[in-house]
């Protein structure tokens, strides 16, 4: 009897974790009636840059949390409780996984010395800084075009002959762009936070390591400033869009 309950629990666990991982990976995604964002934000190289959240940390946390929740329900001899436990535990684990020190933990696992960890961080931060610069170029071009479109809509919306239907399509595209940009910025900020935690977790003792850590903190500060500027410009577009209502 107990064996059958554990079989049911295993099925419930797999289903729950699959759903939870899907939900974690798509957190913050937009469903805008099928309207696609500007291809400058999603095509080519941009399709690979900051296109998903910290799904790795989420996945590990969700799997652990769901497993614990399901096990508790199974031991209680209640398959419904096992399913509910998996869902609740997985949701909590997902949140914990994203917020956890997943980058720092991976550094400690992959590199035995502080010097090696600092070198790895240097490579990662420089790559993300370059990627942020590329994404910034694409996003600024889209923001500029969208601001011009919003200005024209704002000027013409109360004039005779205004094409309201076409304007609504333009607004839907801008909404899709804003959502995509906000999601990219969220991934950038998640990475930035991971770097912050990892930098704070380093214990440099040698003169060389101390100098490298200081350099990395400067690089991190530069990366963070770039993200802040990009977020500010995106927020500016969002505010301009929110000021327009076509009824």
Automatic annotation (TrEMBL):
Signal peptide region: 1-27
Entry's transmembrane regions: 49-75, 82-104
PROSITE patterns in UniProt: PROKAR_LIPOPROTEIN
Coiled-coil spans in chain: 164-233
Keywords for this protein: Coiled coil, Membrane, Signal, Transmembrane, Transmembrane helix
Identification of the protein by name: Glycine zipper domain-containing protein
Organism placement in taxonomy: Bacteria, Pseudomonadati, Pseudomonadota, Gammaproteobacteria, Enterobacterales
């Amino acid at each position: 009897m107990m064996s059958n309950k554990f079989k049911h629990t295993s099925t419930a666990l797999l289903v729950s974790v699959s759903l939870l991982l899907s939900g974690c990976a798509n957190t913050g995604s937009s469903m805008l009636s099928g309207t696609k964002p500007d291809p400058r934000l999603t095509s080519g190289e941009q399709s690979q840059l900051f296109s998903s959240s910290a799904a790795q940390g989420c996945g590990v946390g969700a799997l652990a949390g769901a497993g614990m929740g399901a096990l508790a329900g199974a031991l209680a001899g209640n398959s419904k409780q096992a399913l509910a436990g998996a869902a609740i535990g997985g949701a909590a684990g997902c949140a914990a996984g994203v917020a956890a020190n997943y980058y720092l933990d991976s550094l400690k696992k992959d590199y035995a010395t502080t010097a090696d960890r600092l070198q790895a961080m240097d490579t990662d931060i420089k790559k993300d800084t370059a990627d942020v610069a590329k994404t910034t170029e694409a996003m600024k071009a889209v923001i500029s075009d969208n601001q011009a479109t919003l200005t024209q809509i704002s000027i013409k919306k109360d004039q005779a002959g205004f094409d309201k239907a076409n304007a609504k399509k333009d607004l839907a595209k801008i909404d899709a762009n804003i959502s995509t940009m906000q999601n990219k910025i969220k991934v950038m900020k998640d990475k930035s936070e991971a770097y912050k935690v990892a930098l704070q977790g380093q214990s440099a003792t040698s003169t060389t390591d101390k100098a490298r850590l200081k350099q990395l903190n400067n690089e991190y500060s530069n990366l963070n400033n770039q993200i802040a500027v990009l977020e500010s410009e995106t927020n500016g577009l969002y505010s301009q869009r929110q000021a327009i209502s076509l009824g």
